[in-house]
Design goal:
- The complex is a heterodimer of chains A (about 160) and B (about 325).
- Chain A has one domain.
- Helix content of chain A is about 70%, strand content about 0%.
- Chain A is globular and about 50 Å long.
- Chain B folds into 2 domains: about 100 residues, no CATH class; about 150 residues, Rod shape-determining protein MreC, domain 1 (Thrombin, subunit H, Beta Barrel), CATH 2.40.10.
- Chain B contains 4 helices and 13 strands.
- Chain B is of the alpha+beta class and about 325 residues long.
- Classes of the chains: A mainly alpha (about 160), B alpha+beta (about 325).
- At the A-B interface, α1, α4 and α5 of A face α2, α3 and β1 of B.
Chain lengths: ~160, ~325
């Protein structure tokens, strides 16, 4: 696994943002993975010295701006999720790939739930259970990320 | 003596082996506080709209990159299907144009006559709204609200609060304006209400969006109300946002439940937001403007023939911040 550098991190985040901005419609909106969240989480686990709670917060803020939701909703959820990842980061890199996936799945679910709670507090309507579909598509995206950039876990000797 | 030194050293913490900056906990505390402050400011005060606009403008190039693939796809598909379809469409449009022209000839005379009668009665001159043609860029990215984003913004003199219609009826209202795009909240959104009139008997009411189910609700009408399934609801024009007489919805269900003093009236919007891309953004002229403009444009066939007979000052958004609660 090559050590991550800042350029790669920023580039992947910008690409993720572009995908996020793609004009999704119909079923796409329901199934769209949380591109920015997955990429941010990946770098939080793999290179916490480059991508930390602050970067996650900022990524969330950008999601807020691009979706037109209340500023700070996604930012708070992203930052909290990154915090949960960071809390056990040194243990996470010792996991194998599938154990890590399970943990990431839980994190993605936590983020969705947190945004849902914040939105309901802000008097938005309840979107129903289909709201949680992106957790599944996001975990698939995570596997793609692992395939492309390598698992963020330590190699076994 | 050595023991004493140990006692002094013991309470001290050893320096961290890895230098990682502030602990995750202090970071999350800081950013949590920041987000909560932001949410409070954004929902209650109006300071951040400028920031939002600037940012969306900065994001525009990236948005264009993101839009490019689907536009290419559309272009390629159009290239292959266009010719035969266009011929048919052209035929239909020509026929429609002839029909409309006949109707418009009558309209011009009727409008002149109407204006004349209105001046005789010292009433208000009809208001003829100006319109900007826009195209839908994408349905909103937020699954929580019914919005579409159109490709006209403050650079094309679009303002928040303007009514948006399509060929069939009212689509919604502009709620946020960015330099090159604008957000249109659909009439089915939970936060949007629209003053309507039943076409058949001129009964006035206020319609509210239902949210997810893509229907419109007419709450707080007594069970004895004279509304039947199939009634057409049109804008009443008393809000100064929507010109009077635009089709809004058709009543699909009237239900009376014994435990409620109100009838449950559900209607479906007439405008086909999901079917086509082009929308018209209407701007109501200010009273001074329309008194000057009305006689000159009374025979102007290009403007949509909609009139509003009201003395309420128009061109005002329904609320200062239509989406304050989001």
């Amino acid at each position: 696994m090559r050590p991550a550098n800042l350029t790669t991190v920023l580039l992947t985040l910008i690409v993720a943002l572009t995908f996020q901005l793609y004009p999704w419609s119909g079923q796409g909106v329901i199934l769209r993975p949380d591109f920015l969240l997955v990429i941010t989480l990946y770098w939080v686990v793999r290179a916490p010295h480059l991508c930390n709670v602050g970067v996650a917060w900022f990524a969330g803020l950008i999601v807020d701006l691009s979706t037109g939701s209340l500023l700070g909703q996604h930012a708070l959820a992203f930052a909290f999720t990154a915090f949960l990842a960071l809390l056990y980061q040194r243990r996470l890199v010792l996991f194998n790939r599938w154990q890590l996936s399970v943990y990431v799945f839980a994190l993605l679910f936590v983020e969705r739930t947190l945004v849902l709670i914040l939105k309901l507090f802000a008097d938005n309507e309840n979107p129903g259970l289909s709201y949680f579909w992106p957790v599944l598509t996001s975990i698939i995206l995570w596997q793609f990320m692992v395939l492309m950039f390598g698992a963020p876990t330590r190699p076994r000797h | 003596m050595l023991k004493g030194v140990h006692q002094k050293l013991e309470p001290q913490e050893s320096p961290a082996f890895f230098v990682r900056g502030p602990s995750p906990f202090s970071r999350i505390m800081f950013f949590c506080a920041l987000s909560i402050v932001l949410m409070a400011v954004d929902s209650r005060l109006d300071y951040l709209s400028q920031f939002r606009q600037t940012f969306i403008a900065a994001l525009h190039p990236l948005e264009m990159v993101a839009n490019a693939p689907s536009e290419w796809g559309l272009n390629i598909r159009q290239y292959f299907t266009a010719h035969s379809r266009l011929l048919i469409e052209n035929q239909a449009l020509k026929q429609q144009a002839v029909e409309h022209n006949v109707m418009l000839q009558r309209l011009a005379t009727i409008e002149l006559e109407n204006a004349h009668l209105k001046t005789l009665l010292k009433g208000n001159a009809p208001m003829i709204p100006k319109a900007i043609l826009g195209e839908i860029l994408h349905m909103g990215r937020d699954p929580f609200s019914n919005v579409v984003v159109i490709n006209r913004g403050s650079q094309h003199t679009v303002e928040a609060g303007q009514a948006v219609v399509d060929a069939q009826g009212v689509v919604g209202q502009v709620t946020r304006v960015f330099p090159f795009s604008a957000e249109v909240t659909l009439i089915t959104d939970k936060n949007l209400s629209i003053p309507i009139q039943v076409e058949r008997n001129q009964l006035r009411a206020i319609a509210f969006g239902e949210g997810k189910s893509n229907t419109i609700d007419l709450p707080f009408l007594p069970t004895s109300v004279d509304i039947k399934v199939g009634d057409k609801l049109v804008t009443s024009g008393i809000d100064g946002v929507y010109p009077a007489g635009l089709a809004v919805a058709k009543v699909t269900e009237v239900r009376q439940s014994p435990d409620s003093p109100f009838a449950k009236i559900i209607s479906t919007p007439i405008a086909g937001v999901n079917n086509h891309l082009q929308l018209l953004i209407l701007s109501m002229p200010t009273p001074a403007e329309h008194i000057e403009a009305a006689p000159a444009s009374a025979g102007d066939a290009t403007a949509p023939p909609v009139t509003a007979t009201t003395s309420i000052p128009p061109a005002k958004p329904r609320k200062e911040k239509p989406h304050a609660s989001r």
